[in-house]
Design a protein that fits this description.
The complex is a heterodimer of chains A (about 190) and B (about 325). Chain A is mostly helical. Chain A folds into two domains: about 5-100; about 105-190, Orthogonal Bundle (Arc Repressor Mutant, subunit A). Chain A has helices at about 5-15, 20-30, 35-50, 60-80, 85-95, 110-120, 125-135, 140-150, 150-170, 175-190. In chain A, helix 4 (about 60-80) packs antiparallel against helix 5 (about 85-95). The longest helix of chain A has 20 residues, at about 150-170. The N and C termini of chain A lie far apart (about 55 Å). Chain B is an alpha+beta fold. Chain B has three domains: about 5-60, no CATH class; about 70-225, Jelly Rolls, CATH 2.60.120; about 240-310, Phage tail protein beta-alpha-beta fold, CATH 3.55.50. In chain B, the strands form three sheets. Chain B has a 15-stranded mixed sheet that branches. Chain B has a three-stranded mixed sheet with strand order 17-20-19. In chain B, strand 14 and strand 15 form a beta hairpin. Chain B starts with a helix and ends with a strand. The chains are: A mainly alpha (about 190), B alpha+beta (about 325). At the A-B interface, helix 1, helix 3, helix 6, helix 7 and helix 8 of A face helix 1, helix 3, helix 4 and strand 1 of B.
Chain lengths: ~190, ~325
């Protein structure tokens, strides 16, 4: 049975995306020769592969995510003309982590919210205002444009920037993000 | 070959366009062509939408989305402050249009962080009310009761003024808390400098790490706090209360502020015993149990109150 794309997006958001920081750590740790950019490439492809899969066939989304990433790394290494010598060995040795993340890795809704607020606080002032009006104020693009006296096109740009920055911050470990958030917020204030 | 970061940027821009309902039929065709051009495009696009779904879900916890009609009827130079980040037990809206200001409230046991239009923020502690009235000359906040931390964005042209009873605290860009409880106002400066005034008395300056206590009919008292004491005073921001040898009755008064259900101490000597520790402010039952164990007392649970009694009267 096919889901509509809204439900499919929600399924990915709930089942795949929360595992992304873990997958990134796993790849970084295991394939030392892989550059950050290459890792991003592989993840983008992984999302496309998963998107084109029949979700009802995926019993264990987290394991499936790991597996897809491993396969992609293998394919990529086989097709690339120049691959660091040790790369194949590293990928061969890559085992899909099977253990559950464990309770201490799970974050509560409240922690997520604190984190989101922390990250939002690091956005440049205009960008943050646009994001807040949209996400917490439920304003339309036009309402935001009128309120802040900017064009609707600029609203889109600020929103895209905010989403991108927040997504990037969420890729990383929590600790890093929080330290970053505190630091930048101070800088931001000083700059005002 | 475009970098994955560049692809993610493009994907996010498309996602926003779609989400804002701003896609023309030309755009639609361009989007389809872009998605078909490279598998990574499609993946990045899916990822951008998934990220948005997650951000919306988390934002909804903050009391989320105001009803649209509020926003569209609001007029004036600084109309909306989005309710940002209730670190909350209750998920009520907590803010709505007020005569000619924006009113923010937190319920008992609730912490609520509010981002203001100018980039400043208010962090409301339990049972607090704050009303913001901003104009071209002044950013004014009235605090009818409760406690809040203000992080003030710099704007020399428009001072940020908090009023609690007869006391006003004026800042340009800094961070401080104000607590207003009956006849007493406590001010704690964590960053920068503020100017404190009461009634007709001459204004005085408070710097970081200083606390001022203004009690009715008594001179304002100013003290400089040790780092540790300062942190203890600010522990409420993370939903904790900290005690460092305060008598039990003070600790109980503190924790009672955060809870509907109240602790009552049944014995005078017990009330004077010192309490040390860090507690979740919302978990009054746990506090009672731990305090009782530490002080060799017993907990007697009644429906409306929790009694702390000595073991042998």
């Amino acid at each position: 049975m096919a889901m509509d794309s809204d439900s499919r997006t929600r399924w990915i958001a709930a089942n795949i995306m929360p595992c992304e920081p873990e997958v990134r750590r796993w790849v970084r740790r295991s394939v030392a020769t892989l550059a950050r950019d290459e890792c991003d490439d592989v993840l983008q492809e992984a999302y496309a592969r998963i998107w084109n899969t029949e979700f009802s066939r995926i019993a264990n989304p987290r394991g499936y995510f790991f597996q897809i990433v491993r396969n992609l790394l293998m394919e990529q290494a086989r097709h690339a003309r120049i691959v660091p010598m040790e790369r194949m060995g590293e990928i061969e040795a890559l085992r899909v982590a099977s253990e559950d993340p464990g309770p201490e890795r799970r974050v509560t809704a409240r922690q997520e919210l604190e984190r989101l607020c922390g990250i939002a606080a690091t956005l440049p002032a205009k960008c943050r205002r646009v994001f807040n009006l949209r996400s917490f104020g439920g304003c339309s693009r036009r309402e935001i444009a009128e309120r802040l006296q900017i064009s609707e096109r600029t609203v889109e740009k600020h929103l895209a920037k905010a989403y991108l920055r927040i997504t990037e911050a969420m890729e990383e470990d929590e600790g890093t993000v929080e330290m970053f958030a505190v630091k930048t917020r101070k800088d931001d204030r000083d700059a005002l | 070959m475009p970098s994955s970061r560049h692809i993610q940027e493009e994907a996010t821009a498309w996602m926003v366009k779609v989400q804002c309902g701003a896609l023309t039929s030309d755009d639609e065709a361009r989007l389809q062509a872009w998605l078909a051009a490279d598998m990574r495009h499609e993946g990045a696009y899916v990822r951008a939408h998934a990220a948005r779904v997650n951000i919306e879900r988390i934002a909804a916890l903050a009391g989320g989305r105001a009803p649209r009609r509020y926003l569209s009827i609001w007029r004036g130079p600084v109309a909306v402050a989005a309710g940002l980040g209730a670190v909350a037990v209750a998920v009520t809206m907590g803010w709505f249009a007020y005569a000619n200001g924006d009113r923010y409230t937190s319920a008992v046991g609730e912490l609520r962080k509010v981002a203001l239009e100018d980039g400043s923020s208010i962090f409301l502690n339990t049972a607090t009310e704050a009303v913001a009235r901003f104009d071209g000359n002044e950013r004014r906040i009235d605090l009818p009761h409760g406690e809040a931390l203000f992080e003030v964005a710099k704007d020399p042209a428009r001072p940020f003024v908090v009023r609690a009873g007869k006391v006003t605290v004026k800042a340009v860009g800094t961070a401080f808390t104000v607590r207003y409880d009956h006849d007493r106002v406590d001010i704690l400066v964590t960053e920068g400098v503020v100017e404190l005034a009461r009634g007709e008395e001459p204004a005085r300056r408070l710097v970081a790490n200083q606390r001022a206590m203004a009690e009715a009919d008594r001179p304002v008292e100013i003290q400089t706090l040790e780092r540790q004491e300062l942190e203890r005073q600010l522990a409420w921001q993370s939903g904790r209360v900290e005690f460092d040898g305060q008598p039990l009755h003070e600790a109980v008064a503190q924790i009672n502020r955060y809870n509907q259900r109240q602790i009552v101490i049944m014995d005078r000597a017990l009330a004077e015993r010192p309490v040390i520790g860090v507690f979740g402010s919302a978990d009054i039952e746990a506090f009672a149990k731990i305090a009782a164990e530490a002080l060799d007392a017993k907990v007697v649970e009644k429906s409306d109150v929790i009694r702390l009694e000595p073991k042998r009267p």
